[in-house]
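Fold this: Putative synaptic vesicle transporter svop
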Amino acid sequence: MGYDDVLPHLGSFGPYQRRIFFLVCLPAISCAFHKLAGVFLLAKPDHRCLMPFEADNATFLTDTDFPMNMSYPWDALNNKWSTCERLNTNFTQQYFDSGRPANASVACEHWLYDDRKYVDSTVTEWDMVCTKSWLTATSDSLFMVGVLLGSIIFGHMSDVWGRKPIFFASLVIQVVFGVLAGIAPEYVTYTISRIVVGATTSGVFLVAYVLAMEMVGPSWRLFAGTIMMMFFSLGYMLTAAFAYLFPGWRALQIALTLPGILFLCYWWFIPESARWLLSKRRKSEAIGVIQKAAAVNKITVPNEVLDNLIEPEKKEDMDKPTPSVLDLFRYPNLRKKSLLIFFDWFVNSGTYYGLSWNTNNLGGNDLLNFVISGAVEIPAYCFLLLTLNRWGRKSILCGCMLMAGTMLLLTIAVPDSHGWLIVVLAMLGKLAITASYGTIYIFSAEQFPTVIRNVGLGAASMVARVGGILAPYVNLLGDTWKPFPLIIFGAMAFAGGLLSLFLPETLNRTLPDTIADGERFGKEKETDNLGNSEEMVELKHGTNGDVKTSEEA
């Protein structure tokens, strides 16, 4: 008798589970702080070259009596005076009086920054503009590398040593390196610190997510998972409030980090996962957690249930090979579905983070754009709660990706004078991609056969991180041509929506268990002789282990 057998007696989502669930949702807010902080930490304000004849204490808004056309070359692609070059001349009074601009230009050596939006940022402190603008994209990209590494390292550690100790270890590391990033004297220290913080967001958020999923009943997992993502969206929006209150990047980084200290008091309130304790044969501790929950829920769990409580051991058949990601590519139908799913994960992750980090390049009020970008996620998640089990996964995934692609591609037709319309289209695209990103989690788990589900989802998650790692470099293309990032994200999302039409619907269908089931699942014609072929005999007997689903991992 396992933990799932206790839930009918304990309650799938009773007062105790709701209390603990609320507590583990709050750290999602601080994880959002760190994941989205780069928008303000790496903010690039308007800037121009410091001219040779200007004083060292000149400011961006210093009144100048020199004509711009005699000082800067014209940037035709972005329709403005160049911010990276100045004309190459001696700038004498005779030169200005001539009215003939120099034909040659030279790269700027120093810059003046507009401090009306941002008092300072890492960009202004370390001059990460023009030929060094790639450093900002690299910083965000390496942060996502940290997220990827953290999901692997902390995920494994939580399986070995428990959810609770790894959750708190991640919190401590996050606070230490978050503060270190705020006092970093130069770019390398700052970036390394942010990589570690990125890794800990996986340790904090994913472990908290697993804790929540492991203590509620199966019928409540969709609801609980969606609500937890809404807390992430709340943290998304609150990041803008911190940026408003702390306009300096160092103060902002430290202010976003310190709330993590409050969660350390959870040690006395958050229990270890009873499901994990049972899996480690620690029955007495698991019973203690269950009895405490039962007391709060005002329910008595029968003694015979507790006496027989034990997580069944997994029996490994040494004659059967361990499932690997290669099994997804050995057979044509599984290969097709796997490639489509991986592409969808890549596109959804890249577009989601790309749009989230690009709000200060849309024009208008940066803080307002950022808040709206976070706010549109709430209706997206509500939409999923209402429709995912009614309309089907495939129709929602395809429809939302096509909508996101359409909205983003339409921005190319909007004139610069209608900047508000670009913001509206980008936010509609963000809403749609948030909904599709939420759908792909469930849809993917139902596409992969049970015996290889964890392997498939792990591979898909890694592909998704690659999308997030590349997204900052796509946004960097906006320095060359402002609409570029939205067009690229839009084209990818639209292509993903069309390609997803080739995936089978999974709602209300028996899900595949074996590799053979997975190969047959979704084929237009499932002929009898297919099951008798030599290939299918190999499939039936080649990989049939017992692998936990993603919700149990």
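The radius of gyration is 27 Å. Strands lie at 47-49, 74-75, 80-81, 85-87, 105-107, 111-113.
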